[in-house]
């Protein structure tokens, strides 16, 4: 009986043999990530956008504390808000364009 289980395990019919083979095959494949130029772009983009949204938030707080009302807050941050919102929209469109032809991948497919 033990010999039959050992034979089945070595053939991939049980004992997790098939899983180990699939894991080895997927483990040997190298995942393709962004190159160094794309990584530098993403880091710079994220730093600039974070700083921009921080400027907008500080501007909102300062305008609110100065006026004591929220009625004219938009006008105090209108230009930087439009600039950084446009930057965020352009990044979404750029990402969609560069990844638009790819098929979605599912983690459970082997």
UniProtKB/TrEMBL annotation:
<dbReference type="GO" id="GO:0030148">
    <property type="term" value="P:sphingolipid biosynthetic process"/>
</dbReference>
<feature type="compositionally biased region" description="Low complexity">
    <location>
        <begin position="1"/>
        <end position="11"/>
    </location>
</feature>
<dbReference type="InterPro" id="IPR007482">
    <property type="entry name" value="Tyr_Pase-like_PTPLA"/>
</dbReference>
<feature type="region of interest" description="Disordered">
    <location>
        <begin position="1"/>
        <end position="35"/>
    </location>
</feature>
<keyword id="KW-1133">Transmembrane helix</keyword>
<dbReference type="GO" id="GO:0042761">
    <property type="term" value="P:very long-chain fatty acid biosynthetic process"/>
</dbReference>
<dbReference type="GO" id="GO:0102158">
    <property type="term" value="F:very-long-chain (3R)-3-hydroxyacyl-CoA dehydratase activity"/>
</dbReference>
<protein>
    <recommendedName>
        <fullName>very-long-chain (3R)-3-hydroxyacyl-CoA dehydratase</fullName>
        <ecNumber>4.2.1.134</ecNumber>
    </recommendedName>
</protein>
<dbReference type="GO" id="GO:0005789">
    <property type="term" value="C:endoplasmic reticulum membrane"/>
</dbReference>
<keyword id="KW-0456">Lyase</keyword>
<keyword id="KW-0276">Fatty acid metabolism</keyword>
<keyword id="KW-0443">Lipid metabolism</keyword>
<comment type="pathway">
    <text>Lipid metabolism; fatty acid biosynthesis.</text>
</comment>
<dbReference type="GO" id="GO:0030497">
    <property type="term" value="P:fatty acid elongation"/>
</dbReference>
<keyword id="KW-0275">Fatty acid biosynthesis</keyword>
<keyword id="KW-0444">Lipid biosynthesis</keyword>
<comment type="similarity">
    <text>Belongs to the very long-chain fatty acids dehydratase HACD family.</text>
</comment>
<feature type="transmembrane region" description="Helical">
    <location>
        <begin position="42"/>
        <end position="65"/>
    </location>
</feature>
<keyword id="KW-0472">Membrane</keyword>
<keyword id="KW-0812">Transmembrane</keyword>
